[in-house]
Amino acid sequence: MEPTEVLPIVAILSIVTVEFGGHALLRFVTTDRDRLGALRERFFRAGHAHAGVLLVLSLVYLLYLPRAGFPDGLEWLCGAALLAGVLAQSGGFFLHLRIGEEGRTSYGTALTRTGALLLAAALIALAAGLIRAA
To answer: Which domain of life is it from (predicted)?
Structure first.
């Protein structure tokens, strides 16, 4: 199978987890707000929002990926880097929610930054491929 046939399926199924996360966030905010706390609520919201927006971005990305004219191996690499970046950036917020402290970096913030770098690399690669193909 082609990467642009498999990776959109992964992205779409991942959106289901974002929906579940939205349900959990709503439950925390409406019933257990004190248990979550302000810091954790902020990071929960940030992780949830980033996951949803970036997964929708990945679907658009995967529509344009074939137009770049990359060989299959490079398409797999770019698509995997993008989805790994989505998971790392949004997952970093959730990891910091669990282990982080106010005003301090953690493995979660490092993971979020790593995800941003992966996303940037994948987006730059696609842009370069589209420019080259034009």
So the answer is: Bacteria
Residue 104 binned pLDDT confidence (cut-offs 50, 70, 90)? very high
pLDDT in tens, 27-79: 877 776 667 788 888 888 899 999 999 999 999 999 999 999 999 999 999 99
Structure-token pair, residue 127: 């842009």
Q: Give me the domain span that covers residue 72.
A: 3-133
Q: Cβ–Cβ contacts within 10 Å for residue 87, how many?
A: 17
Q: How many CB atoms are closer than 10 A to CB 21?
A: 18
